[in-house]
Design a protein that fits this description.
mainly alpha
């Protein structure tokens, strides 16, 4: 990792601009996501179609992720993020306009999911690759923990806020999110920090496939990253299915839409707690120990959803399950970004995101089918068994179990 001036994060103007824009954008996303879920239920009227629209948004990581990583390693990362935010603002504003005119149809929601998914893929790849250059290697884990914490802080009130904003009309949440994207673009425009090292010159578009292959080859030669990425992919597959499973369980105990929002608020509180502990935990424990602890904790806690008699109990289980995951995300992200050279960070990060978020997409689309075949309670137990299998595999892999972050 190249040398970057070590400035305390609270005095790092560029980092503060970057994270403040993300917080504003995240607030808009949370408001919109709750409204979109209710809108889909009303418009689609079928669990499978709801899962398909939600899944298409993240399927872009699987289809477009590798190309996005190669692009952000050759394009200006800050300008790429600004363009993505403006594009997402236009797409979200289009939904608001269609709703206001009473012309919104399901095919438009499919297109909206694909377009915003592609732009989100580009944005996340550029943002992840740029962060080490903005904060420096010594403060990377702390910066990732604060970024996770800010995102989870928004999630704590996001679902409830989304429900409140939705009461002002179906158009309002989408207008709010469109404005939030423009605000994020403005904060990025005000940054002056280089988001990447100087390259040796422009590369032709014909070399794009070669760039992708170079990134994948580097990842394949990292046995710890390779194995833990596969485990994280399996975990995200469960997470995607679990989203609709938890909603179905909440409906079984006759939870209202507001109470369902509070269940996910509980998950956000747990994730926020984990984010605040992440930097200290990463400094104290080995990466492998964190990975093993996360998977076993999820495997043991997830079946408790079945026993929850009401929305409050579901929220408590969601909070307990969500604590350790942010610690692991910070640990594995720091490990990967510390090892990867700057010119490969976009490609390697995007490749990992393509697999893990693609699995999340697939899980979301399969969630409705799993519930239809097994029922919500049996589906919960099946997913818990899947988590136990992942935990056992990680425990038995000595190299992954003993992995540590360089310099920690």
């Amino acid at each position: 990792m190249s040398a970057v001036p070590e400035v305390p994060l609270r005095r790092n103007r560029n980092f503060l601009l970057l994270i403040s824009g993300q917080v504003v954008s995240s607030i808009g996303d949370q408001v919109q996501n709750f409204a979109l879920l209710l809108l889909l239920v009303t418009t689609a009227g079928h669990t499978g179609q709801v899962g398909l629209v939600l899944g298409l948004n993240t399927a872009s990581f699987l289809v477009f992720g590798l190309f996005a990583g190669a692009l952000v390693d050759r394009l200006d990362r800050r300008r790429t993020m600004i363009c993505c935010e403006i594009g997402r603002a236009m797409a979200t504003g289009g939904v608001a306009a269609a709703l206001g005119l009473g012309e919104l149809r399901l095919p438009y929601l499919y297109a909206f999911a694909v377009v915003t998914g592609i732009l989100s893929t580009l944005f996340q790849a550029a943002d992840t690759a740029a962060l080490p250059n903005v904060v420096g290697p010594g403060r990377l884990a702390r910066a990732m923990g604060l970024t996770q914490g800010a995102s989870n802080l928004v999630r704590v009130s996001g679902a409830s806020l989304g429900a409140v904003v939705y009461t002002f009309g179906r158009v309002t949440p989408f207008l709010v999110n469109s404005i939030s994207f423009l605000a994020s673009a403005l904060t990025l425009r005000l940054m002056h920090s280089p988001c990447q090292e100087e390259t040796g010159g422009k590369r032709s578009s014909a070399q794009l496939i070669g760039d992708i292959h170079e990134g994948l080859s580097w990842l394949w030669r990292q046995p710890v990253i390779r194995f833990l990425t596969l485990m994280q992919t399996g975990d995200n597959l469960r997470y995607g299915c679990g989203y609709l499973v938890i909603i179905s369980l909440a409906q079984t105990v006759q939870a209202t839409p507001t109470e369902i929002g509070l269940v996910f608020t509980g998950a956000a509180i747990g994730a926020l707690t984990g984010s605040l502990l992440a930097d200290r935990a990463v400094a104290r424990f080995a990466l492998g120990h964190i990975a093993v602890a996360m998977l076993w904790a999820e495997a043991l806690i997830f079946p408790l959803y079945v026993l929850a008699p009401n929305a409050l109990s579901l929220g408590i289980v969601a909070a307990a399950e969500s604590v350790i995951a942010p610690v692991y995300w910070v640990a594995i992200g720091t490990y990967r970004l510390t090892l990867a050279p700057d010119h490969l960070r976009g490609r390697t990060s995007a490749a990992v995101q393509a697999l893990t978020t693609g699995a999340l997409s697939l899980g979301t689309m399969l969630g409705g089918t799993l519930i239809a075949v097994l029922g919500a309670r049996s589906a919960t137990l099946a997913l818990a068994a899947w988590l136990a299998l992942l935990a056992l595999c990680t425990t038995l892999n000595r190299r992954a179990r003993t992995a540590r972050i360089t310099g920690r």
